[in-house]
Write a structure and sequence with these properties.
Layout lengths: L8 E16 L4 E16 L4 E17 L2 E5 L2 E13 L6 E17 L5 E17 L5 E11 L2 E5 L2 E7 L3 E11 L3 E11 L1 E10 L1
Antiparallel strand pairs: 1-2, 1-10, 1-13, 2-3, 3-4, 3-5, 4-6, 5-6, 6-7, 7-8, 7-9, 8-11, 9-10, 11-12, 12-13
């Protein structure tokens, strides 16, 4: 009997929320909280290398700059990423995966008068994931990410250039493999840039 053909594509959809503190070159500090819904398509180049394209919508949030408070209108987000499994060839082996991603997003901020000003953010990210799969189903993991990139915005007509204060994330996640090549996943990141995500995928 021939082995089943490898499944090289995966589509996924997810919902996430993140919150962090920003520092601007003008000396101002800020706080940002945003939500997003995204979809992605992954392609497995080999047993250890994957590439992924993602796109979606930001779904609002809030932004505090100095003492001024803003909300976010819906916006857009896009990304490209790659990963390399450097350890763990068999399904139930411990695994280590390193990856990189580039992302961009944009959305208008809205002040109390209803005036809008676009904010753009660009993100360059490196990650390391370590975990293990149990009974071919449960894959808990630890994730560490380092990142950087500018946030571009205008305050009262003046250009503002900023970025994240922390430039790192430390969190935990869980991937659950279900029948019919479906999986679900969850991730919580309490250290550094705080975030949480839920989603599901299908491999074919």
């Amino acid at each position: 009997m021939e082995a089943p053909a490898p499944r090289v594509f995966r589509v996924s959809a997810g919902y996430s929320v993140f919150a962090t503190d920003l520092a601007f070159a003008s000396g101002a500090d800020a706080y940002v909280e945003r939500r997003a819904a995204t979809a992605s398509l992954s392609y497995r180049i080999s047993d250890s290398i994957n590439i992924q394209l993602g796109a979606g919508a930001t779904l609002g949030g809030r932004f505090v700059f100095r003492q001024d408070r803003y909300t976010f209108d819906p916006g857009w987000i896009a990304s490209i990423a790659g990963s390399w499994r450097v350890f763990g060839r068999n399904r139930n082996d411990p695994f280590v995966i390193i990856g990189g991603a580039v992302a961009a997003s944009g959305a208008p901020t809205v002040d109390y008068t209803g005036a809008k000003q676009d904010m753009f953010a660009f993100d360059f990210r490196l990650s390391g994931i370590a975990g293990k799969t149990f009974i071919n189903v449960l894959s808990p993991y630890l994730v560490i990410r380092a990142f950087g990139g500018p946030v571009l915005w205008k305050y009262k007509g003046e250009d503002q250039f900023g970025g994240d204060k922390y430039h790192f994330q430390v969190g935990l996640g869980l991937l659950v493999n279900l029948p019919s090549h479906i999986d679900v996943f969850a991730e919580v990141v309490p250290v550094g840039e705080r975030a949480a995500a839920l989603g599901a995928g299908y491999s074919f």
